[in-house]
Amino acid sequence: MIAEAGHYALVLALGLALIQSTVPPLGARWRDAALMNVARSTAIAQLIFVAASFAALVTLHVTSDFSVVNVFENSHSMKPLIYKITGVWGNHEGSMLLWVSILALFGGLVAIFGNNLPLSLRAHVLAVQAWVASAFYLFILITSNPFLRIANPPIEGRDLNPVLQDIGLAVHPPMLYLGYVGFSISFSFAIAALIEGRIDAAWARWVRPWTLMAWIFLTLGIAMGSYWAYYELGWGGWWFWDPVENASLMPWLAGTALLHSLVVMEKRNALKVWTILLSILAFSLSLLGTFLVRSGVLTSVHAFATDPTRGVFILLILCIFIGGGLSLYAWRASALKQGGLFAPISREGALVLNNLFLTTACATVFVGTLYPLALEVITGDKISVGAPFFNLTFGPLFLPLMIAVPFGPLLAWKRGDLLGAAQRLIGAGVAALIVVAVVWAWTLGGSTFAPLAIGLAVFVIAGALSDLVERIGLFRVALGTAVQRARGLPRSSWGTIFAHAGVGVALIGIVCETTWNSEYIGSMKTGDVARIAGYELKLDGVSQRQGPNYREMVAQFSASLDDRLLDTMTPSKRAFTTRGSTTTEAALLTRGASQLYISLGDTAGDGAIAVRIYHKPLVLLIWFGPVLMAFGGMLSLSDRRLRVGAPKPARSLRGLQAAE
Amino acid sequence: MTRKQRRLTIIGGSLAVLAIAAVLVLNAMRDSIVFFSTPTMVAAKHIQAGKRFRLGGLVQPGSLARGDNLVVTFQVADGSASLPVSYKGILPDLFREGQGVVAEGALDSSGVFRADVVLAKHDENYMPKDVADALKKQGYWKEEYGAKPNDSAKSAGNPAASRAAQGTPQTEQGALR
């Protein structure tokens, strides 16, 4: 019953989406307010039906109804409740349902909180949103229905892939999707602006909070996915330049560029045409990511070939929306009026530079990700493009960007003074040089690149702080006045400072981890001691334990530093009987921002276990940086300016907060 | 500065950055791309020692031997040829005899493939794409390597249920992504 109800609700949502796709644009054409307002009610109703459909699938998973194929494939009655719920999106069908649910959620939010939008703009935005939604409803209903039944229901399910039974991966996909799909809003706004042939600073003010929100979720989602890979896969690696990771990085880069160009458009009414293009690109890359991950083209050409419906269907959606969006852009963009002038050395100029480097870096990731696929299709040669490629392309492009980051906020709009900005950054530059010297002296004979990179990171952080010092006049005016000014500083300025500092923090983490990571691989017996980076790790013993749906072998290590016992670490190896597979649960010991990492390998005949121990200096900064960036984004999102001009400011404020 | 000059500055700057990026990409393409081979291709092409490539195939059942100090050796086969591989370290959770594997490294002078990376993927049923394609090309592909229940569930009624009834866990496949 529940499965059928869920299926039916999804069909109804498709019907509503089709109405929402057609009626409001017609209303806008005929200037009929009633028809345009249809968009609002259908968007909200659509959200309700999709939510009902999603709730139905969650209920089926929680109640372990194995007569539904999707539950049977991915669940098990003994699985802990939390993973029964998160298992809903741990598979293809469920994750696509989550995708459209989030799309409907964003559409509904625009409908509910978009009262201050011009009627025709709202009608067009929601219509474009419904075009995307209709395409994906059709995709789910035709190729990936999660509500299919089995004629003879089995008694037990096949369980969820054990590596997915983890809290990190439970939260990662929804976050990532909130980011991916959030860019659909800026896409819809861009298409609506092109249809209407009108775009102004107010447009940027409406789009900015949505883009910012999507960007925050995407930032956190990527960071969380990276941390999950770090502790769950047992290799201690946090970024593999895997196509699946690149698929999420590309929209992030385009989205970051978009955020910055939106600032120019809002403040200076310039870069309109470019901003529209970026909005289309950011969502196109999100769609591309969905295609890469969901069509099976990456994991197996075989799956793609034997069941082409899915892949071809998404490819079709991809072509229609990207092709259509870009064609509309080519046709209409020239109709948009030119914006304000600015000199190359100015805040606008700096933001253009930022956009240039971010999009170029994004393009190199794009080439590295799609070139192997293209080459295979054309010549049949199989190649793999791995970390070395990206280090040689992405890295050199990010370097000048990092140098430029502190200058941007210090330049004035319209016409900036580079020398003046440089003078104000002398403090930051000196701090960076001191750090380079200290790190170089401390690690004498080691890498020469690492101290320089750390110096660059310190320059970015110190640059962000000098921006703050400059704005509040610290050291120039009395402390009380400076504090007063700091309080009065717009939240978006604080946001910039935190986000930029976050970039530097992440860079320090990345450089330290990759350069001074130490590793011990060996086989150990009870009583053996491994020494790494000054720490002593003694294997105290091995025991067996029974979990809810697995059996695990737990090794107990006592970690000590200078003969002082710090803590015990218990890495384990879990055997999941249902799927006959094992997972490695690494043990982590956090010391400041550094971590000790132990993961287990095979047990030999004589009882010795293979262990892999890492000491990862300052590794946590890699994820702390993105968290800082996201926090900066949130501060910026709560800025008063993003609400000013709205007829009902208090209401839209609540809206923004509720959506966080 | 006029609008035209401004536009020229921006276009010039963009072209410069794009040119740099293109040079970087082409340079990286030349140096850091790793080709994929199967044992048959290795035998046919005579790859010189020291040249890095990826080797893919099935781990020959019964060939896995563990030495001292975490050294493991095994044979990678693709039906018509096989190649000895030596690796020092911990094998991924999903490494099994008879299963697909991808190793990265280079041949040494004695013709042994010295791997420094043995690829682990998230899904135990995941057959590395390159291996699947290569096996298919040579006619060694078995449907159970790649069949997904989701696909078959659609095409043929409900084989998922019948498969469960037969109790053949080795055909169980999971679609992770």
Structural class by sheet pairing and helices of chain B = alpha+beta
N-to-C series of helices and strands of chain B:
HEHEEEEEEHHHH
Here the CATH topology of the largest domain in chain B equals: OB fold (Dihydrolipoamide Acetyltransferase, E2P)
Cα-to-Cα separation, first versus last residue of chain B: 52 Å
Count of distinct structural domains of chain B: 3
Show unreliable segments of chain B.
122-126, 143-177
Form type of chain A:
globular
**Structural shape of chain B:** elongated
Characterise this structure.
The complex is a heterodimer of chains A (660) and B (177). With 660 residues, chain A is of the alpha+beta class. Chain A has 3 domains: 1-165, Four Helix Bundle (Hemerythrin (Met), subunit A) (Up-down Bundle), CATH 1.20.120; 167-424, no CATH class; 518-616. Chain A contains 21 helices and 11 strands. Chain A has helices spanning 2-30, 33-62, 69-74, 81-86, 92-113, 119-143, 167-196, 201-232, 243-268, 272-294, 301-306, 308-332, 347-378, 387-404, 418-424, 426-442, 449-472, 479-488, 491-516, 621-637, 649-659, and strands at 383-385, 518-524, 529-532, 535-546, 551-561, 564-569, 572-576, 581-585, 587-591, 594-603, 609-616. Chain B is an alpha+beta fold and 177 residues long. Chain B has 3 domains: 1-32; 36-142, OB fold (Dihydrolipoamide Acetyltransferase, E2P) (Beta Barrel), CATH 2.40.50; 147-177, no CATH class. Chain B is 37% helix and 24% strand. The longest helix of chain B has 30 residues, at 3-32. Chain B is elongated. Chain B starts with a helix and ends in an 11-residue tail after the last helix. Chains A and B meet through α3, α11, α13, β1 and α14 of A and α1, β1, α3, α5 and α6 of B.
